[in-house]
Design a protein that fits this description.
Blueprint lengths: L10 H13 L3 E3 H8 L3 H13 L3 E4 L2 E4 L1 H5 L5 H9 L5 H8 L4 E2 H10 L8 H17 L4 E4 L4 E4 L1 H4 L1
Antiparallel strand pairs: 1-3, 2-3, 4-6, 5-6
């Protein structure tokens, strides 16, 4: 599905890509990034896609360039910026609509996303596991969502509502 946040990404890896680009005057080739980050280009592609969806960089051929937003990203504003950006990216955008005011069990959230056509894996159990991992890794960490592990329920983080 186009425009859906890649599941195999991590906040620290995205932050590392942005830092490497900043150290290289905001632009560099994908091969150079792979060398500097000591990762294969194929392993970087989901991270680069995440950066693109978050509005942090643009890719022209195999050249990466920070956007104004990417240039302004700092350690202190990172969580707030990510939270604001994720709210307009699937599957976070639809999850916010499903959760809205009330706490929602994981099973209900994930079936609600499936009914909206947001499916990242054909097997329901694997799909739910990948979504849960993505929401914990990005949604909870950026304070977009709150998760209660005792009740397996999700809610919109209080700071997101204000």
């Amino acid at each position: 599905m186009d425009g859906v946040f890649p599941t195999g990404t991590g906040i620290s890896r995205v932050r590392a890509i942005i830092n490497i680009l900043k150290q290289n005057k905001g632009h560099m080739g994908m091969t150079e990034l792979a060398e500097e980050s000591e990762e294969d280009v194929d392993d970087l592609l989901p991270q680069i896609e995440a950066c693109k969806l978050l509005g942090l960089l643009v890719v022209d051929d195999s050249e990466l360039r920070l956007t104004d937003r990417g240039e302004k990203l700092t350690f202190s504003n990172f969580s707030k910026f990510i939270r604001e950006s994720l709210a307009s990216i699937e599957p976070f955008k639809s999850a916010i609509k499903i959760i809205s005011e009330n706490e929602v069990q994981s099973a209900d959230l994930f079936s609600g996303l499936r009914s909206r056509g947001i499916i990242i894996h054909g097997n329901d159990a694997t799909n739910d596991m990948l979504l849960k991992r993505l929401f914990l890794r990005w949604g909870v960490r950026s304070k977009l969502f709150a998760y209660n592990s005792d009740t397996d329920a999700w809610s919109v983080h209080k700071s997101t509502n204000s």
